[in-house]
Amino acid sequence: MDIAIKAEAINKYFYLPDEFQVLKDISFQINKGEFVSITGKSGCGKSTLLYILSTMDTAYKGGLSLEGSQVTGQKNDQLARFRNEHLGFVFQFHYLLPDFSCLKNVMIPALRLGKLSHAEIEHQAIEKLTLLGVGDQALKSAGRISGGQQQRVAIARALINNPAIIMGDEPTGNLDSRNTTIVFELLQNLCRQQGKTIVTVTHDNDFARKSDRIIEMMDGRIVR
User: Which domain holds residue 28?
Assistant: First the structure.
């Protein structure tokens, strides 16, 4: 199978207040179209690892390839463009602009990328919102819809540039059980029907068990 993510002997240190090794020889592969959950107790290094996989942390030793491109060593402006084109992000908090409409929130990453006209981006944003069951909320301010709807709008925003890889940092951490199920099923459908690669950090064992594979971490290492 084609490889979406390949991490090779990644080591990461924090230096303040004292030197501490947070990631220790992390190596793994994730195939295209796979849904993977990274689990482990708080402080085990999983969020630090996700930050490196997302290309937003470049201060590490080792190698990282995403979608066949070696991203280790690339300059910040190259990485920013790579992120915008190939990666989508869903966080525990939605980070929507509350005074902007849901539609405008979804459009922003595509407007920034600048590949399509405003009309084309608006059309695609409405399609994404409709796909995620919140098309009827498009013109409402993001601050005036429910938490579950906000997270679905955030997923639509993550999809607007048609990324190959979607990364989630506790994407259901602020949701009740009903909305957690909805968000999981949305992500699973993106994986199954559109071939997206999904990588999530989660404390939710039920969420993790339903994904294709679990990478369990402890004390900066992969243990399972």
Answer: 3-222
